[in-house]
């Protein structure tokens, strides 16, 4: 038995498996193609040299070439050529060892009409090849970072084109992030570029459309960052852009800064109230901030009301919330009184109360009780209440609130008539 086992083992050792020479072909699509834009660039440059300044022909050439050339792989190369005539090295200079064309955005005429025609070329190309959308936006971001490497004329053309593309919705306003680059800001490149960009953008649309696009990407409060820290003031921004013929933009930025300042003030007041800071301290702080921000008393009383109502966790039960509100507002009647020295301020407060009670359903039945409380606390005068009742109220919940106030207003009118008749008797 042992001899048989040893013989079997020896045979096993001798019969080693051998590899045959058979090969499996790698399918072409599985091969990792080397990134080599040279041939691609030559094809695009050749086509652009043939079409020349005829942008209709350029658009047709680009449309047809997408079927033969790898736009997806060489998107950056394609956009570099269309804008600068050749591939761009880091910093914005043209690569020396590459073929280039004289027919591109940077060599075109520096006027709005030509830039609009170029915008159409890009628009048609991206509509035809949707996958280029993201690459195109990345290209614009990159070009903005390279601004120092371009001539003033090249920057102007790019700014006009970018404004038109933003107006057409071809790119998102988030590309403006590139303009906040420290070096571009420090040397004044960002602000000068922004002037041309916003001019062409507003020319295509209007300031409201521009504002909406900026808000969508959170850029509406960042325009001051186009300037270095030592020049980042509303006054400097306003003068710079107004002098450049963009008063609409400077007004918008001023308004945004004012809104931002009001939000910050409201937040600070809310925190002070939540902490239970003494009312006298809150009044002193508010008066100082009001002066600093150049706010009217009407604007200030609106901020105070929002802060007062925002610093409390309100009861969800309608029958309990009114009692809670009365107690809370009674506590802060001194603060409210300090900022209602004018009739317009009283009306502003009444309108804010009406709006709040309408927007917060649990407060719908609280309006009259709040108004009466503030009348008794000398915050609201009978003149303001009567004016509000007769013709100065909002349409929001109008019938409900007027009905609530009806008896109190009648009482005020009767009291006023009695007072007048007493005066006549005295005379």
From TrEMBL:
SUPFAM superfamilies tied to this protein: ARM repeat (SSF48371)
One Pfam family of this chain: HEAT_5MP1_2
Gene Ontology biological process terms, A to Z: regulation of translational initiation
Polar residues: compositionally biased ranges: 13-23
Keyword Transcription regulation: yes
Record-level GO cellular component terms: cytoplasm; membrane
Stretch list, region Disordered: 13-32
Residue ranges of domain W2 in the record: 255-422
The family this protein is said to belong to: Belongs to the BZW family.
Protein name: Basic leucine zipper and W2 domains 1a
Species this protein is from: Sparus aurata (Gilthead sea bream)
Gene that specifies this protein: BZW1
């Amino acid at each position: 038995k042992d001899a048989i086992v040893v013989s079997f083992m020896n045979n096993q050792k001798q019969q080693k498996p051998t590899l045959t020479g058979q090969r499996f072909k790698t399918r072409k699509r599985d091969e990792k193609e080397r990134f080599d834009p040279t041939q691609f660039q030559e094809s695009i440059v050749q086509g652009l040299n043939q079409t020349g300044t005829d942008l209709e022909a350029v658009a047709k050439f680009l449309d047809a070439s997408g079927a033969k050339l790898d736009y997806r792989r060489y998107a950056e190369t394609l956009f570099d050529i269309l804008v600068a005539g050749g591939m761009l090295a880091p910093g914005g200079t043209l690569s020396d060892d590459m073929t280039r064309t004289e027919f591109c955005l940077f060599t075109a005429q520096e006027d709005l009409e030509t830039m609009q025609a170029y915008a159409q070329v890009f628009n048609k190309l991206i509509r035809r090849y949707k996958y280029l959308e993201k690459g195109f936006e990345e290209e614009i971001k990159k070009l903005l970072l390279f601004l120092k490497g371009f001539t003033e004329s090249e920057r102007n053309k790019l700014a006009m084109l970018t404004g038109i593309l933003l107006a057409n919705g071809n790119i998102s306003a988030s590309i403006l992030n590139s303009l906040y680059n420290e070096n571009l800001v420090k040397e004044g490149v960002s602000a000068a570029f922004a002037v041309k960009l916003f001019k062409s953008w507003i020319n295509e649309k209007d300031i409201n459309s521009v504002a909406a696009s900026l808000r969508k990407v959170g850029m509406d409060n960042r325009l001051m960052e186009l300037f270095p820290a030592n020049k980042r003031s509303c006054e400097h921004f306003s003068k710079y852009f107004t002098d450049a013929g963009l008063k609409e933009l400077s007004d918008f930025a001023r308004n945004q800064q004012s809104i931002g300042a009001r939000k910050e003030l409201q937040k600070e007041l809310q925190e002070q109230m939540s902490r239970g800071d003494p009312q006298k301290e809150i009044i002193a702080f508010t008066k100082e901030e009001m002066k600093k921000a150049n706010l009217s008393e009407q604007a200030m009383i609106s901020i105070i009301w929002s802060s007062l109502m925002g610093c409390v966790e309100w009861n969800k039960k309608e029958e309990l919330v009114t009692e809670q509100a009365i107690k809370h507002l009674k506590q802060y009647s001194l603060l409210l009184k300090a900022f209602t020295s004018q009739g317009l301020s009283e009306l502003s407060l009444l309108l804010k109360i009406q709006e709040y009670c309408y927007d917060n359903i649990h407060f719908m039945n609280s309006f009259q009780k709040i108004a009466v409380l503030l009348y008794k606390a000398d915050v609201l005068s009978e003149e303001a209440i009567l004016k509000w009742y007769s013709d100065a109220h909002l349409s929001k919940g109008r019938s409900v609130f007027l009905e609530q106030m009806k008896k109190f207003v009648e009482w005020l009118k009767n009291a006023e008539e009695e007072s007048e008749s007493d005066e006549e008797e005295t005379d």
